[in-house]
Design brief:
Blueprint lengths: L4 H6 L11 H21 L3 E9 L4 E9 L7 E9 L14 E6 L2 H13 L13 H5 L15 H13 L4 H7 L1 E2 L2 H7 L3 H37 L31 E2 L7
Parallel strand pairs: 1-5, 1-6
Antiparallel strand pairs: 1-2, 2-3, 3-4
Helix pairs in contact: 2-5
Length: about 270
């Protein structure tokens, strides 16, 4: 199956039997855009990505480090591979090129990897980063109808490209480096390792959160006691790390707030 990123965003199930109705698609997209805005605020507008070109073949790669929505300072690897079509001609919009996908997000591995691979939408050079079972065993529980649908990490990566205008070929070329296959092999973590690391970091993050909540509750109780004439004690400690509350003020455009890590590689 051939699909462009524009087609995927318009309706990922367009070329399969399962068709998402327009209202359902819009609800999902607005939800993901809202979630992505919140992530940008938390990340200070900084998203790391790397762009690579195979100019002789008219092939382009976007490697985006997508932040976890739950665990801070944890990132998934999402890669788009854009290849020309028979009708690409002089197109300057990468979203109109054929696209293949890779993500080591657990939802992609457990729900969509098999379906994407079956429909030739998985980046073949990165198949080894997914467990054999994810590619050969149908997701009977997670995706019994084998539907191609919106995947959150992939949609977030699309928003990064859209907001930075990286779909414009001239801009993409201006920021890209010649493809070094070793870079992808070295830096893209196998999905199973990423999932295991996510579980470990999730437990650690959850433990820190509970500690902060417990300290806050204890301080609130002691403050209440002090208001009743008892001495006030502060149980806060420099060893307790809290996440500052970020408030959105006014209207913020994503495109003006994304900062990037310079797309250079060490050789």
């Amino acid at each position: 199956m051939e699909m462009s990123l524009s087609q995927y965003v318009l309706n990922p199930a367009l070329k399969t039997n399962a068709i998402l109705n327009a209202s359902a698609r819009e609800i999902i997209k607005r939800l993901y855009e809202s979630k992505f805005d919140n992530i940008l605020l938390r990340e200070g507008g900084k998203i790391t990505y790397y762009l690579f070109s195979q100019a002789d073949k008219n092939i382009y790669w976007a490697y985006i480090k997508v932040p976890s929505e739950v665990v801070h300072n944890f990132y998934y690897d999402v890669i788009f591979k854009f290849t020309p079509t028979s009708s690409t001609g002089f197109l300057t919009d990468l979203f109109k090129f054929n696209v293949q996908f890779f993500s080591n997000d657990p939802n992609f591995m457990y729900t969509y990897a098999y379906v994407f691979n079956k429909n030739d939408l998985l980046i073949q050079e990165l198949r080894s980063k997914l467990p054999k079972e994810a590619l050969t065993k149908a997701p009977e529980e997670k995706n019994p109808t084998e539907q191609i649908s919106y995947e959150k990490a992939i949609y977030f990566a699309y928003l990064v490209m859209k907001d930075r205008g990286l779909n414009k070929l001239i801009k993409f070329k201006g920021e890209s480096q010649p493809l070094d296959p070793k870079f992808l092999v070295t830096n893209v973590m196998p999905a199973e390792e990423k999932v295991n690391l996510r579980e470990e970091e999730g437990k650690r993050y959850s433990g820190k959160k509970k500690t902060v909540i417990s300290k806050n509750a204890a301080n609130a109780m002691l403050n209440k006691m002090s208001s009743n004439g008892r001495r006030n004690l502060d149980l806060s400690t420099s060893n307790v790390r809290t996440t500052a509350n970020v408030k959105k003020v006014g209207s913020i455009k994503r495109a003006n707030n994304i900062k990037t890590t310079k797309t250079t590689t060490k050789k």
